Structure formats: C-alpha cells, structure tokens
Amino acid sequence: MRLILFVVSLIALLFAVAIIGPSFIDWDKYKPQIITQVKNATGLDVTIDGDLSLAVLPSPRLKVEGLSVAAPRKIRFENLLTMKSAQISVAIMPLLQKKVEVQTITLIQPDIQVEMMSDGTPSWMSDKLQKMQNGAKSVGTLAPREAKQ
Fold this sequence. Notes:
Elements: H1 2-20, H2 31-42, E1 46-48, E2 52-55, E3 61-70, E4 79-90, H3 92-96, E5 102-108, E6 111-112, H4 127-148
Antiparallel strand pairs: 1-3, 2-3, 3-4, 4-5, 4-6
C-alpha cells in the first residue's frame, strides 16, 4: 500500500512540475539564440519584440509575441511578416521519438507582404534560401542519372 501511495504521489508531483515548471523559466533570455538560429537557417532577419512562453501540457506549445521578419529584398515593403502573436503546438508522442509533428499554428493579426522582383524572384527569397533551393534542384537532377548507371 505504501508503494502504491508513493508511486501515485510521484506521478502527481511530476504532473504538477510539468504544468507549473515552464512558467518559472524566463524564456525571453533565449530570444537572441532563436533569432541567430533562424538567421543561420534561412538568412532572414527576425525580430521578437514581445514575450516568449512555453507550456508542456495538455500539449507542448510555444507562443511568440511581436514577431516580424524583414524582407531580404525590399522594394515597397520593409517586412515580409509582422504579427501580434503566433502560437505553435506539437504532438507529444512524436517528441518522445525525437520527431516534431506540428498540430496547430495560430497567427494573430498577421500582416504578410510579398512581392515579385523585376527579375522574377520572390521578395522572401534570401541568398541562403536561394542556395538551398538551387542545391535541392541539383540533387534532384543528379538522382535520376545515378539511378540509370
């Protein structure tokens, strides 16, 4: 009986930590790291003027307030995207398998401004994204040749 009570108490404690724990962490201190990672991955300049928050239960979700993404090629619009907030929730079971499965993305007051440049490239295409796209095209064209040999 004592063992059952101990196990139930331990589970309840872990559940309470999962619910309450993330609210004690200052997620805003991770803004510079997030901005740097987005820049490294996409070449886009991101600004987060608001708060970051993370919750684990009932499903893991991240909320970002005051998000803007600068246009890498500006003609008429300074930003590709500005929004009051964004909330992203992911499924919990795939996370245990080191996979991310996005369940929902909610954008509050998004303002998306995209345009085509005179050379036909879209305004959201940074040099980094262009290189990634060209690399994907070249890999796609090499695969059939390799298969024929």
